[in-house]
Amino acid sequence: MAVQYKKLTKKELDTFIEMRICQLREEGAKEEVDLKPALVDYYDRHMADGTFVSWLAVDGDKNEYEMLTMHFWIDTIHQELAVLCLLNPFKVQYFPLDSIEEIEPVVTYAGKKKDYAYGVYFNITINGKKTSVGVASSGRGSLINRNHRNQYLDDIQKLKDVIWKAKLKD
Fold first, then answer.
1. Residue 61: pLDDT above 70?
2. What's the start-to-end Cα distance of the chain, in Å?
3. Beta strands 64-75 and 3-7: pairing type?
């Protein structure tokens, strides 16, 4: 299995929403209301303004999505960064924006020319503890080319900009 990481886009949104609804059912949510229209609206708005970012783990051989995703959003009322990790067990963590000290992009290059990369990550330092978050990985598949690498780095910068902008609103 060659797992590759990719940023959630509108193309995968229907599948992503179905996974989210399944997750809610497993957690005990009742099906009294059709959640899909509200979730489509929510994700469209928040993906567009950069306040919701998610990466999917894709089995490159089967083009199937696994529940290995992380989502970030900013609670501007409580001044917190929320991180949702859809692994077993399901977990949401909240971090005060003031506790976020640094977000630093990291690229592991394949060769000295830096045309291709094995992976793109970012390190986030919260209360002095540095954690690495995978954005894209070649796994056992194709290397990441310069254009894709630059797009991932732009996405990391957008996430950082949104967090820093929210921190400054205080």
1. no
2. 45
3. unpaired
Q: How far apart are CA 129 and CA 127, in angstroms?
A: 6
18-28 burial string, b = 16+ CB within 10 Å, else e? Answer: ebbbeeeeeee
Indicate the pTM of the whole model: 0.59
DSSP-derived letter for residue 34 is -
Q: Model confidence over 130-157: pLDDT tens digits?
A: 887 878 777 666 788 888 899 889 988 9
Burial class (CB in 10 A: 0-12, 13-18, 19+), 94: exposed
Determine the Cα–Cα distance for residues 52 and 47; give it in Å rounded to an integer: 5
CATH architecture of 3-168: 3-Layer(aba) Sandwich (3.40)
Q: Long-range contacts of range 65-72, CB-CB < 8 Å, 24 or more positions apart?
A: 65/12, 65/15, 65/16, 65/19, 66/3, 67/19, 67/23, 68/3, 69/8, 70/133, 72/159
Q: At what angle do helices 36-48 and 10-26 cross, to 10 degrees?
A: 130
Q: What's the CA gap between 67 and 83, in Å, rounded?
A: 15
Query: What is the three-class DSSP state of 50?
Result: coil
